[in-house]
Amino acid sequence: MTHEHAQPPEDFQPNHQNGTSADSDGATPSSLPAPREFSAGERYPVSFAIFAMGRSHKGLAAQLLREIGLFAGQEILLFQLWDKDSQSQNSLGRALRLDHSTVAKSVKRLEEAGLVSRSRSPEDGRVTLVSLTDAGRALEQRVTEVWQQVEQATTEGFTEEELATLTRLALKAAANADKHLK
Question: Per-residue pLDDT for 133 more than 60?
Answer without folding.
Answer: yes
